[in-house]
Protein backbone atom coordinates (compact mmCIF):
# COMPACT_ATOMS: atom_id res chain seq x y z
CA UNK A 1 0.00 0.00 0.00
CA UNK A 2 1.31 3.42 -0.99
CA UNK A 3 0.28 6.76 0.49
CA UNK A 4 0.54 10.30 -0.86
CA UNK A 5 -0.49 13.45 0.98
CA UNK A 6 -0.34 17.21 1.23
CA UNK A 7 -1.84 19.68 3.71
CA UNK A 8 -5.39 18.96 2.51
CA UNK A 9 -5.64 15.37 1.25
CA UNK A 10 -4.30 11.95 2.10
CA UNK A 11 -4.71 9.19 -0.49
CA UNK A 12 -3.79 5.51 -0.29
CA UNK A 13 -3.44 3.16 -3.25
CA UNK A 14 -3.02 -0.61 -3.54
CA UNK A 15 -0.47 -2.13 -5.91
CA UNK A 16 -3.14 -4.63 -6.98
CA UNK A 17 -4.84 -2.91 -9.87
CA UNK A 18 -3.21 0.39 -8.85
CA UNK A 19 -6.55 0.88 -7.13
CA UNK A 20 -7.47 3.81 -4.91
CA UNK A 21 -8.27 2.68 -1.36
CA UNK A 22 -8.87 5.93 0.54
CA UNK A 23 -9.35 9.61 -0.22
CA UNK A 24 -9.42 11.52 3.04
CA UNK A 25 -9.86 15.26 3.42
CA UNK A 26 -7.62 16.25 6.33
CA UNK A 27 -9.38 19.55 6.99
CA UNK A 28 -13.00 18.39 7.13
CA UNK A 29 -12.29 14.80 8.22
CA UNK A 30 -14.41 13.21 5.48
CA UNK A 31 -13.62 9.99 3.62
CA UNK A 32 -14.78 10.38 0.02
CA UNK A 33 -14.23 6.87 -1.29
CA UNK A 34 -16.62 3.93 -0.85
CA UNK A 35 -15.62 1.51 1.93
CA UNK A 36 -15.58 -1.59 -0.27
CA UNK A 37 -18.21 -3.58 1.66
CA UNK A 38 -18.18 -6.93 -0.16
CA UNK A 39 -21.85 -7.53 0.71
CA UNK A 40 -22.60 -4.96 -2.00
CA UNK A 41 -19.42 -4.56 -4.09
CA UNK A 42 -15.91 -5.35 -2.94
CA UNK A 43 -14.08 -2.97 -5.24
CA UNK A 44 -13.36 0.73 -4.66
CA UNK A 45 -11.86 2.17 -7.84
CA UNK A 46 -10.85 -0.43 -10.43
CA UNK A 47 -9.07 0.60 -13.62
CA UNK A 48 -10.60 -0.65 -16.86
CA UNK A 49 -7.99 -1.90 -19.34
CA UNK A 50 -7.55 -3.12 -22.06
CA UNK A 51 -11.33 -3.13 -22.53
CA UNK A 52 -14.26 -1.29 -20.96
CA UNK A 53 -17.36 -3.34 -20.17
CA UNK A 54 -18.03 -6.82 -21.44
CA UNK A 55 -17.50 -8.63 -24.73
CA UNK A 56 -20.17 -10.52 -26.63
CA UNK A 57 -19.83 -14.17 -25.53
CA UNK A 58 -16.82 -13.02 -23.47
CA UNK A 59 -14.52 -13.12 -26.50
CA UNK A 60 -13.04 -11.12 -29.36
CA UNK A 61 -11.23 -11.92 -32.60
CA UNK A 62 -7.94 -10.55 -33.87
CA UNK A 63 -5.74 -11.73 -36.76
CA UNK A 64 -7.84 -14.84 -37.21
CA UNK A 65 -7.62 -15.93 -33.57
CA UNK A 66 -10.28 -15.88 -30.86
CA UNK A 67 -9.39 -14.68 -27.35
CA UNK A 68 -11.33 -14.84 -24.10
CA UNK A 69 -11.27 -11.72 -21.93
CA UNK A 70 -13.38 -10.93 -18.87
CA UNK A 71 -15.46 -7.85 -18.18
CA UNK A 72 -13.36 -4.64 -17.96
CA UNK A 73 -10.15 -6.51 -18.82
CA UNK A 74 -7.33 -7.79 -16.62
CA UNK A 75 -5.50 -4.73 -15.24
CA UNK A 76 -7.75 -4.39 -12.18
CA UNK A 77 -6.67 -7.84 -10.96
CA UNK A 78 -2.93 -7.54 -11.64
CA UNK A 79 -0.04 -6.32 -9.52
CA UNK A 80 1.43 -3.02 -10.67
CA UNK A 81 4.98 -1.92 -9.88
CA UNK A 82 5.72 1.42 -8.23
CA UNK A 83 8.11 3.03 -10.71
CA UNK A 84 8.28 6.55 -9.31
CA UNK A 85 7.07 8.29 -6.18
CA UNK A 86 7.23 11.51 -4.19
CA UNK A 87 5.27 12.73 -1.19
CA UNK A 88 2.51 14.04 -3.45
CA UNK A 89 2.57 11.68 -6.43
CA UNK A 90 3.04 8.01 -7.25
CA UNK A 91 3.45 6.21 -10.58
CA UNK A 92 2.38 2.59 -11.12
CA UNK A 93 3.36 0.52 -14.16
CA UNK A 94 1.97 -2.66 -15.65
CA UNK A 95 4.01 -4.19 -18.47
CA UNK A 96 2.79 -6.87 -20.85
CA UNK A 97 3.96 -10.34 -19.90
CA UNK A 98 3.29 -14.00 -20.55
CA UNK A 99 0.02 -13.85 -18.65
CA UNK A 100 -1.36 -10.82 -20.53
CA UNK A 101 -0.13 -11.99 -23.94
CA UNK A 102 -2.13 -15.20 -23.59
CA UNK A 103 -5.40 -13.23 -23.64
CA UNK A 104 -4.31 -9.96 -25.28
CA UNK A 105 -1.62 -10.27 -28.00
CA UNK A 106 -0.07 -6.81 -27.69
CA UNK A 107 3.09 -5.55 -26.02
CA UNK A 108 2.48 -2.47 -23.87
CA UNK A 109 3.47 -0.37 -20.89
CA UNK A 110 0.52 0.97 -18.93
CA UNK A 111 1.21 3.69 -16.36
CA UNK A 112 -1.20 5.17 -13.83
CA UNK A 113 -0.06 8.32 -12.02
CA UNK A 114 -1.86 9.75 -9.00
CA UNK A 115 -0.89 13.28 -7.98
CA UNK A 116 -2.13 15.88 -5.51
CA UNK A 117 -2.35 19.65 -5.70
CA UNK A 118 -4.24 21.40 -2.90
CA UNK A 119 -7.69 19.75 -2.77
CA UNK A 120 -7.42 18.13 -6.23
CA UNK A 121 -6.50 14.52 -7.01
CA UNK A 122 -5.47 13.84 -10.61
CA UNK A 123 -5.33 10.38 -12.18
CA UNK A 124 -3.31 10.11 -15.41
CA UNK A 125 -3.26 7.11 -17.74
CA UNK A 126 -0.32 6.62 -20.11
CA UNK A 127 -0.35 3.73 -22.59
CA UNK A 128 2.71 2.97 -24.71
CA UNK A 129 2.60 0.52 -27.60
CA UNK A 130 5.96 -1.19 -27.09
CA UNK A 131 5.38 -3.76 -29.84
CA UNK A 132 5.79 -3.72 -33.61
CA UNK A 133 2.12 -3.98 -34.58
CA UNK A 134 -0.86 -1.69 -34.17
CA UNK A 135 -2.38 -2.01 -30.70
CA UNK A 136 -6.13 -1.84 -30.01
CA UNK A 137 -7.37 -0.98 -26.52
CA UNK A 138 -9.84 0.87 -24.33
CA UNK A 139 -9.29 2.49 -20.96
CA UNK A 140 -11.54 3.89 -18.27
CA UNK A 141 -12.12 4.70 -14.61
CA UNK A 142 -14.57 3.23 -12.10
CA UNK A 143 -14.16 5.12 -8.77
CA UNK A 144 -16.94 4.67 -6.21
CA UNK A 145 -17.71 7.67 -4.02
CA UNK A 146 -19.47 7.53 -0.67
CA UNK A 147 -23.10 8.66 -0.82
CA UNK A 148 -24.30 9.94 1.54
CA UNK A 149 -21.02 11.73 2.17
CA UNK A 150 -22.03 13.13 5.57
CA UNK A 151 -23.73 11.34 8.47
CA UNK A 152 -26.64 13.77 8.76
CA UNK A 153 -27.90 13.13 5.20
CA UNK A 154 -29.45 10.27 3.25
CA UNK A 155 -28.67 8.90 -0.21
CA UNK A 156 -31.70 10.70 -1.64
CA UNK A 157 -30.48 14.06 -0.31
CA UNK A 158 -27.73 14.05 -2.94
CA UNK A 159 -27.80 14.71 -6.67
CA UNK A 160 -25.51 14.88 -9.66
CA UNK A 161 -24.88 18.29 -11.20
CA UNK A 162 -23.58 18.41 -14.77
CA UNK A 163 -21.50 21.34 -16.01
CA UNK A 164 -23.74 21.79 -19.06
CA UNK A 165 -27.44 21.48 -19.79
CA UNK A 166 -27.90 17.96 -21.13
CA UNK A 167 -30.34 16.53 -23.66
CA UNK A 168 -29.20 12.97 -23.92
CA UNK A 169 -30.56 9.46 -23.59
CA UNK A 170 -29.02 6.56 -21.72
CA UNK A 171 -28.00 3.42 -23.56
CA UNK A 172 -29.68 0.40 -21.97
CA UNK A 173 -27.88 -2.88 -21.35
CA UNK A 174 -29.00 -6.39 -22.20
CA UNK A 175 -29.15 -9.05 -19.48
CA UNK A 176 -25.60 -10.09 -20.39
CA UNK A 177 -24.25 -6.54 -20.29
CA UNK A 178 -24.25 -5.62 -23.98
CA UNK A 179 -25.30 -2.21 -25.30
CA UNK A 180 -28.72 -2.26 -26.94
CA UNK A 181 -29.36 -0.50 -30.25
CA UNK A 182 -31.46 2.48 -29.16
CA UNK A 183 -31.12 4.94 -26.25
CA UNK A 184 -34.00 5.74 -23.93
CA UNK A 185 -34.91 9.10 -22.41
CA UNK A 186 -32.89 10.19 -19.41
CA UNK A 187 -31.69 13.81 -19.28
CA UNK A 188 -34.01 16.33 -20.88
CA UNK A 189 -32.93 19.98 -20.83
CA UNK A 190 -31.43 19.71 -17.37
CA UNK A 191 -28.09 19.75 -15.60
CA UNK A 192 -29.27 17.82 -12.53
CA UNK A 193 -29.96 14.15 -11.83
CA UNK A 194 -31.49 13.34 -8.41
CA UNK A 195 -30.04 10.24 -6.79
CA UNK A 196 -32.16 7.35 -5.61
CA UNK A 197 -31.40 3.70 -4.99
CA UNK A 198 -33.93 2.62 -7.63
CA UNK A 199 -32.10 4.65 -10.29
CA UNK A 200 -29.59 1.79 -10.59
CA UNK A 201 -31.89 -1.22 -10.28
CA UNK A 202 -31.52 -1.84 -14.03
CA UNK A 203 -27.71 -1.54 -14.03
CA UNK A 204 -25.57 1.44 -15.03
CA UNK A 205 -26.58 4.64 -16.76
CA UNK A 206 -24.47 4.69 -19.93
CA UNK A 207 -24.03 7.90 -21.93
CA UNK A 208 -22.35 8.76 -25.21
CA UNK A 209 -20.94 12.21 -25.97
CA UNK A 210 -22.15 14.22 -22.99
CA UNK A 211 -21.91 17.99 -23.42
CA UNK A 212 -20.47 18.27 -19.89
CA UNK A 213 -16.85 17.81 -18.93
CA UNK A 214 -17.59 17.99 -15.20
CA UNK A 215 -20.02 16.17 -12.91
CA UNK A 216 -20.44 16.99 -9.21
CA UNK A 217 -21.92 15.02 -6.33
CA UNK A 218 -23.63 17.64 -4.15
CA UNK A 219 -26.48 18.21 -1.73
CA UNK A 220 -28.51 21.23 -0.62
CA UNK A 221 -28.12 19.87 2.92
CA UNK A 222 -24.31 19.90 3.00
CA UNK A 223 -21.52 22.28 1.96
CA UNK A 224 -19.36 19.28 1.07
CA UNK A 225 -19.08 17.23 -2.08
CA UNK A 226 -16.84 16.64 -5.06
CA UNK A 227 -16.46 17.53 -8.71
CA UNK A 228 -14.97 15.20 -11.31
CA UNK A 229 -13.49 16.78 -14.43
CA UNK A 230 -13.00 14.59 -17.49
CA UNK A 231 -11.91 16.04 -20.82
CA UNK A 232 -12.24 14.10 -24.08
CA UNK A 233 -13.76 10.91 -22.67
CA UNK A 234 -16.45 10.04 -25.26
CA UNK A 235 -18.38 7.64 -23.02
CA UNK A 236 -19.54 7.87 -19.44
CA UNK A 237 -21.05 5.44 -16.94
CA UNK A 238 -22.84 6.15 -13.66
CA UNK A 239 -23.52 3.13 -11.46
CA UNK A 240 -24.21 1.78 -8.01
CA UNK A 241 -24.76 -1.74 -6.70
CA UNK A 242 -28.31 -2.44 -5.58
CA UNK A 243 -29.13 -0.45 -2.42
CA UNK A 244 -25.46 0.39 -1.77
CA UNK A 245 -24.25 3.72 -0.35
CA UNK A 246 -22.02 4.79 -3.22
CA UNK A 247 -22.12 6.19 -6.73
CA UNK A 248 -19.50 5.42 -9.37
CA UNK A 249 -18.54 8.20 -11.77
CA UNK A 250 -16.89 6.52 -14.74
CA UNK A 251 -15.23 8.37 -17.63
CA UNK A 252 -14.49 5.90 -20.41
CA UNK A 253 -12.47 5.78 -23.60
CA UNK A 254 -14.29 2.69 -24.82
CA UNK A 255 -17.58 0.91 -24.17
CA UNK A 256 -19.07 -2.57 -23.83
CA UNK A 257 -19.82 -4.52 -26.99
CA UNK A 258 -23.20 -3.84 -28.55
CA UNK A 259 -25.58 -6.65 -29.38
CA UNK A 260 -24.75 -6.48 -33.11
CA UNK A 261 -20.94 -6.51 -32.80
CA UNK A 262 -18.84 -8.48 -35.29
CA UNK A 263 -16.44 -9.48 -32.51
CA UNK A 264 -13.45 -8.16 -34.47
CA UNK A 265 -11.33 -6.12 -32.08
CA UNK A 266 -10.39 -3.47 -34.62
CA UNK A 267 -14.10 -2.91 -35.39
CA UNK A 268 -15.17 -2.64 -31.74
CA UNK A 269 -17.03 0.57 -30.91
CA UNK A 270 -14.81 3.09 -29.14
CA UNK A 271 -11.61 1.08 -29.61
CA UNK A 272 -8.38 3.11 -29.72
CA UNK A 273 -5.74 2.31 -32.33
CA UNK A 274 -2.17 2.97 -31.21
CA UNK A 275 0.64 2.62 -33.74
CA UNK A 276 3.97 1.00 -32.78
CA UNK A 277 6.00 3.00 -30.21
CA UNK A 278 3.25 5.61 -29.98
CA UNK A 279 1.96 6.94 -26.63
CA UNK A 280 -1.62 7.70 -25.56
CA UNK A 281 -2.35 9.83 -22.49
CA UNK A 282 -5.52 10.95 -20.73
CA UNK A 283 -6.43 12.15 -17.24
CA UNK A 284 -9.36 12.86 -14.99
CA UNK A 285 -9.37 14.74 -11.70
CA UNK A 286 -11.53 15.23 -8.68
CA UNK A 287 -11.83 18.35 -6.57
CA UNK A 288 -12.94 17.58 -2.99
CA UNK A 289 -14.65 20.13 -0.80
Give the topology:
Blueprint: E1 2-5, E2 9-14, E3 19-25, E4 47-48, E5 59-62, E6 65-68, E7 81-85, E8 89-95, H1 98-101, E9 108-117, E10 120-129, E11 135-137, E12 139-141, E13 144-146, E14 158-170, E15 184-194, E16 205-208, E17 214-219, E18 222-230, E19 235-239, E20 246-253, E21 272-274, E22 279-288
Antiparallel strand pairs: 1-2, 2-3, 4-12, 5-6, 7-8, 8-9, 9-10, 10-22, 11-21, 12-20, 13-20, 14-15, 14-17, 16-19, 17-18, 18-22, 19-20
**Strand elements, count:** 22
Are there runs of 5+ residues with pLDDT below 50, and where? none
Number of helices: 1
Structural domain tally: 1
Main beta-sheet annotation: 9 strands, antiparallel
Q: Strand-residue fraction?
A: over 45%
Could you give the order of the helices and strands?
EEEEEEEEHEEEEEEEEEEEEEE
Q: At the third CATH level, what is the topology name?
A: Beta-galactosidase, Chain A, domain 5
Class inferred from helices and paired strands: mainly beta
Query: Rough shape?
Result: globular
Q: What is the topology, as strand order, of the major beta sheet?
A: 7-8-9-10-22-18-17-14-15
CATH architecture: Distorted Sandwich
Q: Compute the gyration radius: what is it?
A: 19 Å
According to CATH, what is the class?
Mainly Beta
Amino acid sequence: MQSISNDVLQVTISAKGAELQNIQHLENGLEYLWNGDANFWGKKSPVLFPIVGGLKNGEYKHNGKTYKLGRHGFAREMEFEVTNSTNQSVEYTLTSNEQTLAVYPFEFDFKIIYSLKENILTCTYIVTNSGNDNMYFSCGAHPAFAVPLTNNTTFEDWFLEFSSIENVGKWPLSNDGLILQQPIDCLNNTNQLPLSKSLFYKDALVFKNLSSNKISIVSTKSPHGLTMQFNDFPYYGIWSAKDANFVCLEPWCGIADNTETTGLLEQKEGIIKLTPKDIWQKNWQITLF
